[in-house]
């Protein structure tokens, strides 16, 4: 089926911030004399900050340090976003320029809160490429619920089934599928399980491969 719009996740797909976020959690835990395991950090990929807190609260060795852990994490992370580098994922600029040349509507669908999402898009200079940005602040339920992507499609006035979503995380891909959209997964930190990969339109090694696939679908 042809597509009429592209919806893109932000963290881990367009900008290389998942590593920054993970390090902020490590630093916050270290300051409090505890640690967060790598498996636990992997489970946070693609979740909103509030969902991350709920997940960490379930771990007895961490729950005693909340909300100090959450506060320190935000401080470390915001400091990096405001004053440090925000690296782009390879191929994102070429992909967005191609979408612009083809006049394909596109929007951001991110589990990040609105003000922080705008900061990231402005500092990474990606904001001008998008007609709309839908964040966790704009919906009742964040990923893996479908709300963010359904809202993005509505703002673009495109039927969900005519949208293709680009995602790096399992939670984000689940949100796209729940919205009755096709999804291309470009893994960042965590590879999708086989069950998720089977439901995806494709699993691409990078954004260059994703752009090539979108062009093939467009030409077909």
Question: How would you explain this protein's 3D organization?
Answer:
The chain has 220 residues and is α/β, with parallel strands linked by helices. The chain is 49% helix and 10% strand. The protein is built from eleven helices and six strands. Strands 3-2-1-4-5-6 form a six-stranded parallel β-sheet, sandwiched between helices. α1 crosses α5. The termini are close together. It holds the Pfam family HAD_2. This is HAD family phosphatase.
Integer average pLDDT? 92
Which regions have little confidence, pLDDT < 50, spanning 5+ residues?
none
Largest sheet: 6 strands, parallel
Please give the radius of gyration in angstroms.
Answer: 17 Å
SS elements, strand count: 6
* Helix proportion range: 40-55%
Structural class: alpha/beta
> Order of SSEs, N→C?
EHHHHHHEHEHEHEHEH
Question: What's the topology here?
Answer:
Layout: E1 5-8, H1 18-31, H2 38-44, H3 49-57, H4 60-63, H5 68-83, H6 92-101, E2 106-109, H7 114-123, E3 132-134, H8 147-156, E4 163-167, H9 170-178, E5 182-185, H10 194-199, E6 202-203, H11 207-219
Parallel strand pairs: 1-2, 1-4, 2-3, 4-5, 5-6
Helix pairs in contact: 1-5, 6-11
Task: Describe this protein with a few key phrases.
single chain; 220 residues; alpha/beta; 10% strand; globular
């Amino acid at each position: 089926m042809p597509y009429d719009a592209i919806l893109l996740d932000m963290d881990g797909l367009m900008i290389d911030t998942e590593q920054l976020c993970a390090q902020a959690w490590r630093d916050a835990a270290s300051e409090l004399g505890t640690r967060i395991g790598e498996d636990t950090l992997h489970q946070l990929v693609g979740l909103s900050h509030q969902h991350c807190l709920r997940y960490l609260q379930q771990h007895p060795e961490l729950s005693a340090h909340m909300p100090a852990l959450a506060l320190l994490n935000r401080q470390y992370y915001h400091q990096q976003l405001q004053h440090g580098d925000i690296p782009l994922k390879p191929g994102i600029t070429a992909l967005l320029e191609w979408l612009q040349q083809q006049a394909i509507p596109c929007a951001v669908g991110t589990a990040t809160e609105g003000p922080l999402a705008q900061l990231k898009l402005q500092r990474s200079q990606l904001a001008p490429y998008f007609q709309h940005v839908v964040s966790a602040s704009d919906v009742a339920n964040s990923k893996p619920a479908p709300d963010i992507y359904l809202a993005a499609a509505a703002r673009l006035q495109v039927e969900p089934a005519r949208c293709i979503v680009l995602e790096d995380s399992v939670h984000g891909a689940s949100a796209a599928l729940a919205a009755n959209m096709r999804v291309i997964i470009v893994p960042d930190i965590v590879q999708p399980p086989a069950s998720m990969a089977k439901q995806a339109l494709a699993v691409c090694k990078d954004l260059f491969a994703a752009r090539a696939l979108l062009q093939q679908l467009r030409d077909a």
